[in-house]
Each structure stands twice: as C-alpha cells, then as structure tokens.
Amino acid sequence: MRRLLVALCLLTVVLGSTSALAQARNQLGPLCTTETTPADKMVDACTKIIALKVFKGEQLATVYFWRAVGWNKKGDYAKVITDATEAIRLQPSQAVYNLRGSAYYDKGDYDIAIADFDDALKLGPPSGIIFHNRGNAWRGKHDYTKAIADYDMSIKADPKSAFSFQNRGISKEALGDLDGALADINQAIRLDPTLPQPLINRTSIWRAKGDLDRAIADGSEAIRLAEKKPPANIMTPPNSVLISGYTHRALAYEAKGDYARARDDYKATLAIVASDAGSKANQATAKVRLSLVSDAAVPIPRDAPSPTTQPTAAPAPQQTGAASAPSPAPAVRGTRMALIIGNGAYAHVKALPNPPNDARAVAKSLRDIGFTVSEGVDLDRAAMQKMTRDFLRDAARAQVAVVYYAGHGVQVDGRNYLIPVDVELKPGTAMTEAMIDMDTIMAGLDDQVRTNILIFDACRNNPMAQQVASAAANRGIEGASGLAAPTSLGAGATLGAGTLIAFATAPGQVALDGDGANSPFSAALSRHIGTLGLEVQQMLTRVRAEVVSTTKNKQVPWSNSSLLGEVYLAEK
C-alpha cells in the first residue's frame, strides 16, 4: 500500500485578524464561520450568505473559505478547490492556499499541492503546519528526503507535533531506516496516545520486522480508538483512519496465515465509503487480497510436520473455544519470487513467435540467481488467472517480487490489460473481463514492505494503425491502444512505494517482436538481469542502450520507479 493515512492539521491562522474574524462571524453568521459546525449546515449557511450578494472583497473571500472548509469535511475536494480558488481571487491568504493545497493533496495532485504550499509560505511568516503539509506532498511524490526536511522544520516550530513525528517516521521507514522510523512514531504515540494514526503506521514497521503479533495488536488498538472517537480534525479525509487501520491489520493477519480474520478485515475495509486517493488505493489492495485469501486453502501450521513426515503419536484432543487459524511457515528473510509469462500462440489475433522463448530465457536467468520462479507459456485465460493469483498469494511473504510478461497488451479506458492466448477481442462491455487486469496485479502487490519489479514486453500504442502496420512485427492488438504509462492504480492512487515498472518501449511507440529467437528487449534483459552486483536501475539502463542500438533507435525502453533505495537482483 503505496500511501498511509495522514491527518492534516487545519491552519490556525484564518483570513484577517482576530477582531476581523469576530466581526465576520457577527456579520456573516456563526453557522458558516465556526469550525465545529457540521459540514452540511456549514455549506448551507455559507451558500445562503453568498446568495445574498451583499458582501464583497475580503468578507466574501471569508465566506468562500469557510464553505470550502465545509466541503472539505464532506470529502468533496473538487468543490473545496473551486471555492478556495474563488477566495484566492478575492483575497489571497496563507489559510486559503493551505486549504486548497491540502485538497489537491487528498486528490493525489501532489505537484499542484506543493505549489500552493509554496505560495502560502510566501504570503506570511514560516508556518510549521504548512511545512508539515508540504512534507506530506513530497512524501506523496516519494521524495522522502525533501519530506523529512519539511517535517524537521515543522517539528522545530512545534516540538509537540505528533503528526510531524509520525510522518517523518513514515518517510524514514520508506528509506529503509526502520529503527529511526520506530523512534519517531513511538514519540508521536507518547505525545498523543489517543491518536490511532501512529499506531496504524507502526503496524507496517512491525510487519517489515516480521513481528506480526505486535502489528496486529497495534492495528487492533488503532481501530478501537478510531471507532471510539472518530478523528475530529476537519482536514482528515472522512473514514480514512478506519480504512487504513483495517487494511493494515488485514495484511498482518494474512501474513500470519489467519485468513479468516484477514477476510473479515478486508471486508470491513471495502464496506466503508472512501473519499481520498489514499483510501481508494487501500481499498484497491483490499479488494485484490480479499479475493486471494477467499480462494486460498488453509495454510500449513507453523509447527505442523512436513507432508512427507508421519506423526509419531496421536494428536491431542481438540480444545474447546475459538482458536486462531493456523499460520504458514514463516518466510525466510530475503525470499525472492518471480512470475514469468510468455504468450504467443494466439488463436484469434496475430500470433507472436517469440514470447515463449522470451519467457524461458528470463525465467532461466532469474533461477540462476536464486529466484523461485513460476513460469507459464501460451496460457489461456483460466490458466493465466490461476497462475497470477497463486503468485500474488505466495508473494505476500516474499521480500522481492518480479513480474515479467511478454505478449499482447492493450489499454482500455485508462486501465492496462494482458492478453491470454484464447481471447477473442470484440467491442462490448464484457471485453475486459476476458483479459488480465495489470492494475489489479499492481494493487495486489502494493503493501509497503516488499520491493516489486514489474517488466512488460508488450506494445505501448495501437501498432496496427495504418502508419505502423507495415513497419515490422510487433506486439499489439488491432483496434485497441497498447499499455499506458501506469500513473495510477484505479481511482487516483499513484504508483506504490517500493515499486519499479518497466516497459519494452516508450509511450506512444511499439515493442518489436524481433527477427531472431527473442525480442530485442528480452534478449538484452536476459543477458543483463543476472549480472552480479548490478543495481536494477543501472541494469535497465544497459538494457535500454542495447535495445536502442539493436533497433537503430526504433525502440526505446521506458521505466518509472518509486524504489526507495538500491535494489540488486543478483546479489553481491
């Protein structure tokens, strides 16, 4: 789960001076301009005042500001932005820029949010709250160094800022400093033991450290606190604390092998209405994981004998009372797994000769460097779906997961799909149901404690269009767009932290199948992927240079990374 829940503090400074605020409340009405007014009443009161058309300039800007606050309470960020923009036009202020920036943050528009926070800082004295909020946006962009610098400024301004300690800890965790992260989040808990958010964040640290019982305990306490007293801060997206709490506890239950409780928590996550980008990303992960654990066989208990060993004594009588589901054997730290699929023998669209060869070559290279590989060639939809789901389920206990796919791929309505060999693509609402959703694979791997490397040797545009149809054999489908740049997972969530995704070619171009036994991309990849001591992004740079040279600049591989440090597939 590439985003944790963040509770943003409302900027305490508002439009005008304290006396001006008191005057505004007397003139404009307390229901509109009081922070504790319920959202619907606040929006309604402010709307009625605007309709009177008796206020102008700074006073009218104040009304738009407070109506934007009301929309923010409701999680309607588009309307927050509209009203805040009007307030800025009438009378710019730190408060309004901060509010609008926070709304852009909750929508996942981090660059615009940062610009608004920059403008807020220019309009007044340094504000620890604005530094905190800008740190959140840097963190959303996975620029953890800049995020930590802003949280440092926030903590300097307010050493009792629990959320700044919490979010600095999240950033340290993202950079691999688990002990530093734990120290910061522990400090946040000491500063305010009633907050559920730091406990939720600590669950992922315990999971990364392999202490699943502590992760579950923290998740349970966070849920209890959030249900007992929902966060009152108006900058906290509605329901986001509970969604995050249930998702994190479910991941811990699943990692422990307690699938029954994991299912219950995933269902609870999905039953809650989400408004912000982070919550929607959590729900995307929960939906995939729920499906996987619902299908899963009961895992082998930690202390159970191996399937080939017969017990030497009769089992003890079963104890009465509820018992936890058995847990799987703990994964060895450093477990590395790969899913490799090559589809070429298509029945209803253009066949491709090389993907099976490509898959075999890449699979061999990964096995040679110690990966556990699930390999499939020319898979129909049922086989491809089963292999993918089995891999996602097993990868829950891996530390590094690699996915490689060679074959046809398309993009439909902004989502990416991989094509099984038996699919007959015809226009209609059911077309995507016959394919494998790449975004679902990404969501299923997005849980913050694993490094994910996803590599797709598939077409990136509509290569069957007339202008390119005669250029060369390529990996595309007539009448459909190829795989799109993965800037989102579902509704507004960005590429998950700890993930690198690479395509055989750049956006708007085609991936060639090649004249030899392998595609140009897979030939280069299988040569370099096993190079000892070569960091993965350096490896892809070598692959890119070789493909560009081999294809005479016709194909330029492309990648996007949110990796949090150096990753070596072939360890030193």
From TrEMBL:
Family, per entry: Belongs to the peptidase C14A family.
Pfam families (UniProt xref): Peptidase_C14 (PF00656), TPR_16 (PF13432), TPR_8 (PF13181)
Matching InterPro entries: Caspase-like_dom_sf, Caspase-related_regulators, Pept_C14_caspase, Pept_C14_p20, Pept_C14A, TPR-like_helical_dom_sf, TPR_rpt
Keyword Signal: yes
Keywords from the UniProt entry: Signal, TPR repeat
Caspase family p20 domain span: 334-463
Protein source organism: Bradyrhizobium diazoefficiens (strain JCM 10833 / BCRC 13528 / IAM 13628 / NBRC 14792 / USDA 110)
Region (Disordered): 299-330
Heme listed as a keyword: no
Positions annotated as TPR repeat: 94-127, 128-161, 162-195
GO biological process, one term: proteolysis
Protein name as it appears in the record: Blr5947 protein
Signal sequence residues: 1-22
SMART domains associated with the record: CASc, TPR
UniProt GO molecular function: cysteine-type endopeptidase activity
Biased composition regions of type Low complexity, renumbered to the chain: 305-326
